[in-house]
Structure formats: structure tokens, C-alpha cells
């Protein structure tokens, strides 16, 4: 579990009218890594996050998956 505090969404340029705040929440993370050698690996991370806009019941889904290539020196 991870704790998410003071999440905000702000825009710039043509999206400069976006300025949202979200309540604090918790989320889950699962991560695994495969090492090709002692200095190189590939990692996958899945994150589950659900946000509620401050002062409303409007919900936002922040789930995402990341794929990373790592080099360890």
C-alpha cells in the first residue's frame, strides 16, 4: 500500500483552465523485475489508484502500468 497526499491536476497552455485537487487516498503497487545480467534488467509495475475530487463525490481512476529498462552501475 502507498499513501497519496495532496494529489493535484494542473494544466498549462491551451489546458491552463485545469486546476483540480483530490482527497488523500491509498493505493496498491505490484512490481517485478527480471535481470538479464547482474547490471541489466527489465521491470514491470502495476499501480491501482482511485481519487475523489476534493469537496465532491466525483471519482477519478489513476490505474496505470509501467515498463522500465534498468542499467545498474
Number of domains: 1
The main β sheet shows up as: 4 strands, antiparallel
Coarse shape? elongated
Helix count? 0
Oligomerization state: single chain
Give your account of this protein's structure.
The protein is mainly β and 73 residues long. The chain has one domain. It contains no helices and 8 strands. A 4-stranded antiparallel β-sheet has the order 1-4-5-8, with no helix packed on it. The protein has a two-stranded antiparallel sheet with strand order 2-3. Strands 6-7 form a two-stranded antiparallel sheet. The chain is elongated and about 50 Å long. The mean pLDDT is 94.
Could you outline the blueprint of secondary structure elements for this entry?
Elements (H helix, E strand, L loop, with lengths): L1 E3 L3 E3 L8 E3 L3 E13 L2 E9 L1 E3 L6 E3 L2 E8 L2
Outline of the structure:
The protein contains no helices and 8 strands. The protein has strands spanning 2-4, 8-10, 19-21, 25-37, 40-48, 50-52, 59-61, 64-71. It starts with a strand and ends with a strand.
Keyword list:
mainly beta; about 70 residues; about 0% helix; four-stranded antiparallel β-sheet; two-stranded antiparallel sheet
